[in-house]
Amino acid sequence: MDRSPKLPKIIRDLRRVRGTDLTLFRSHQKSKAIEKEVEIMRKISGAIATVVGSAAMLAGLTAPTASAAGVEHCSEILPITTSAVCINDDGGYRAHVSVAVDLHGHIGDFNLECDNGQKFGDLGPFKMDGSDYSYIFTVGRQGRCHVTLYVRDAGFSISSPSITR
Known about the structure:
Blueprint: H1 9-18, H2 23-59, E1 73-76, E2 84-89, E3 93-98, E4 107-114, E5 119-121, E6 126-127, E7 132-137, E8 144-151, E9 156-159, E10 163-164
Antiparallel strand pairs: 1-2, 2-3, 3-7, 4-5, 4-6, 4-8, 8-9, 8-10
């Protein structure tokens, strides 16, 4: 008969089966401690992944894949211009202008305008001295959007068709 009824049941059972050998009990306790540590590590790594993922989304740091670049959708405003303003899905909303003689030397400024009411600016006005300029708006998925190139010193703008991402 067991004289220690207040001891945990596992100890009483061990005493009955193996006498005073508590090896199995200690092993069981170590396993529980290891399981707890593993569970804590899983929670921590899950929290870290959530924080990093959220930070990446807030900063717009999505990694483009080889198949992320879609077809460019361009507007050519003839006869006013022979330049083209384009948009495509390149890991973000990618604005692109092919500068022809009509825009060469002017001051341009890209803006992303979305059907959800959001508007995003790029890094500010730039002088169009070269032939091609691009900017990727890494703002997450905003739905249907288009790019507008404001030609600041000439007082007009050119918009691309809209894309949805």
